[in-house]
Amino acid sequence: MKKLLNRQIAIVAVAVIATVAFFSFKSGDDRNFQIAKNLDIFNAIVKELDMFYVDTIDPNKTIREGIDNMLYTLDPYTEYFPEEDQSELEQMIKGSFGGMGSYIAYNTKLKRSMISEPFEGTPAAKAGLKAGDILMEIDGQDLAGKNNAEVSQMLRGQAGTSFKLKIERPNEKGGRTPMEFTIVRESIQNPAIPYTAVLDNNVGYISLSTFSGNPSKEFKKAFLDLKKQGATSLVIDLRSNGGGLLDEAVEIANYFLPRGKVIVTTKGKIKQASNTYKTLREPLDLDIPIAVLVNSGTASASEILSGSLQDLDRAVIVGNRTFGKGLVQVPRSLPYGGTMKVTTSKYYIPSGRCVQAIDYKHRNEDGSVGTIPDSLTKVFHTAAGREVRDGGGVMPDIVIKQEKLPNILFYLVRDNLIFDYATQYCLKHPTIVAPEKFEVTDADYNDFKALVKKADFKYDQQSEKILKTLKEAAEFEGYMDGAKEEFAALETKLTHNLDHELDRFSKEIKDAIAQEILKRYYFQRGAILQRLKDDPDLKKAIETLNNQSEYSKILSVMK
Fold this sequence. Notes:
By secondary structure, the chain is α+β, with helices and mostly antiparallel strands. The protein is built from 18 helices and 21 strands. The protein has five domains: 72 residues; 94 residues, PDZ domain (Pdz3 Domain); 196 residues, 2-enoyl-CoA Hydratase, Chain A, domain 1 (Alpha-Beta Complex), CATH 3.90.226; 97 residues, no CATH class; 32 residues. The strands form six sheets. A six-stranded mixed sheet has the order 10-11-12-15-16-21, sandwiched between helices. The longest helix is centred in the C-terminal third of the chain and has 27 residues. It starts with a helix and ends in a 5-residue tail after the last helix.
């Protein structure tokens, strides 16, 4: 009953607050009356419930649910941050926070958080914390029963403050060794550029992971360093870059485009939300051939950079269609120290297209949303006259077929078996060879398979689930008698066989193991180097950059 009541309040809150959210955008006596009316109703309901409801309600929780439900009906990027969550918003905008600098993960077996990946050069790494360390206490407070969010909040704090951390580290004997550290928090900035290199044939490579903070300065330095090392062409890797600050994307685009070029235009309901962003400075290099790598995780500011370089025929885009986030958010101050990150406009790249792929405005009856179908997208043209389309992210000039990861790999990662094997491997190997030379041997893989079997690993095969459902449907509809032999044959072929699956997908699993191990010794750089060893997107990008005629042909209009 209480849950139902809270939901009813939430629904009322949605209606009321939604009206308030748009108060400044529309006028009229009737609209003002509706606002006042619904605010009065909502206020009266809360007072009546507080006074007469059989159980004591939590006004903060109930009204917060109303706010969250209201915002959920809009788009996933419009969010409310109360005063106590301002650090989360600050990290989102600035890409920095006060803490020790490590990813943590929840160990379901131990029911505790653990270190999953310390960042290079941070207090966590300098103190000697390692992936696999089980977090036991922070300043004497036991962490048992606390989830990752709660532990993360305790680890964060003002830069310069310190805390005592007790951990238990797995040892070679199969037990855990207690250890204690005193850690001084620092301002943690996630690395915007985790890896750069000059590859074969003088191809420069820059991995750009975020547009939060101030990545344009790092990018400029990295690019100029690559040119000093002899780079004559450039690959910008934006895969899985979820975006960040729009200004930073414009700044990086400016490095390769003339002054005065329109990079992006924002259009919103009010005048303040509509702006045009142009290149303001002289470029670094107008001639160097560029290939940009993208995938389905390339979003927002990443799409501004890749899309503008495509629209202005300045780079060849390689990979898979990007995410399709063409919405701009602005923080708005609220009473009592709160902030609302609200979507105020859509952005349009130089050709005039918007890359927004999901239509949140027109929802289905069940509240769900879907992508804009290709049949409803419109044709736009690049500066050279090439056809490009809106409504579905940025479509690459060269599309690379995406290989599907095997189902068993998902479950091996989920159950921390690859993670646990890497932890054991590191205990036995204090040092390893350089990332470029490292490989998971057959002997290593046999050790991994032994660990998997010892753990009594079980995983669901979708084909088995579907076959079971089909059998039940056939029996219900009376078709089973005539199809017994066919079902028996399918069951034989689809029988769960762990040894077979581990051998069949050994290449993909070995690669995942290698990435996890290399992170332990060489941090993010090691994992990136492993991924680049057999990277079809990168191979095609390099091939295109090394073929000037093909490169020029892609960026011109066929006549």
